Amino acid sequence: MQAHEIAISLPTIRVGDPVAKAVRLMVVKRLPGIIVVDDAGRPIAVLPGTQVLRLAIPSSYQSDPALARTIDEVHADLFWQVPGSRTVGDCLPAQSAKPASVRPDATLLEIAALMAHRHSPLVAVVDAKRTLVGAVTLERLLASLAVAGPDDDQ
């Protein structure tokens, strides 16, 4: 099997979108992460869910998690609303790593190796012009591997 055979269409975000939109989109659509694209539809970043969560957490709490204990429960439960007008682009590192992506003809092993190496449950599938054509989620990959693998009934 190849990437194009198991790729699915996922909603994307842009660098100018609010952080809250990225978080909501991931939650509402039950996504394992989110793909940030430019105006031409080329992936800029593939963010696993934990990285999307990092966009919403104030940096002071990320650098010193013990500070979170100083916030009462009511306010702690509202931390994700703090980003306010901050955009996804505001939260991305200046020197982003190349997005986790594969070509449509990538094998399941190539996808699995990239996911494992990048610790990402999501990989973008891009064409020759690096335009997003779909995505492979960890769940989709594992389901495909289970179907393609040998029977366990022996």
What's the tally of helices? 8
Radius of gyration computed on alpha carbons: 17 Å
Average pLDDT:
86
Percentage of residues assigned to helices:
25-40%
Largest sheet: 3 strands, mixed
Q: Major sheet: order of its strands?
A: 1-2-3
What proportion of the residues form beta strands (DSSP E)? 15-25%
Q: Can you tell me the residue ranges where pLDDT is under 50 for at least 5 consecutive residues?
A: none
Q: What letter string, H or E per element, gives the SSE order?
A: HEHEEHHHHEHEEH
How many strand segments? Answer: 6
Q: How far apart lie the N and C ends?
A: 24 Å
Shape category: globular
Structural class: alpha/beta
InterPro entries: CBS_dom (IPR000644), CBS_dom_sf (IPR046342), Diverse_CBS-Domain (IPR051257)
Keywords: CBS domain
Pfam families: CBS (PF00571)
Domain CBS: 1-63, 94-154
